[in-house]
Design goal:
Blueprint: H1 3-9, H2 40-64, E1 68-73, E2 76-81, H3 82-118
Antiparallel strand pairs: 1-2
């Protein structure tokens, strides 16, 4: 059925509100009574499935990149599997990006607070 047909199939409440806006489930199957609506549990399930897929891909990446490589950083030098070196580089990049973003958010919040006090 089309969305337009679904709306006209349910009689409008006499209070003048539109179907699906009343609190709680509606007898006519409005939006608030939809058993397939999203919930925290379904969101958690989707996040766990996505995390599981990323974990599987990560394990495959590590298993395929076990060749030892020489890594030099400043005066440090060592040999490590390629996958470990790449994952450490990615983690360091993520941390630096998070730090830069955090500093920017603090700067904007401080500016907003200062502007609110001056007005």
């Amino acid at each position: 059925m089309s969305e337009h047909t679904d709306r006209t199939a349910d009689p409008a409440p006499s209070s003048g509100t539109t179907p699906g806006t009343a609190p709680g489930p509606t007898a006519g199957g409005g939006r608030s009574g939809d058993p397939l609506r999203g919930s925290r549990t379904s969101g958690l399930w989707a996040a766990l499935v996505a995390f599981g897929l990323v974990l599987v891909l990560l394990v495959v990446f590590i298993a395929q990149n076990t060749d030892p490589v020489l890594v030099r950083f400043l005066s440090f030098e060592g040999e490590t599997p390629l996958a470990v070196a790449l994952l450490v580089a990615v983690a360091a990049g993520l941390l630096l990006t998070a730090l830069a973003g955090t500093l920017r958010m603090w700067q904007v919040r401080r500016r907003v607070r200062r502007d609110r006090k001056s007005h």
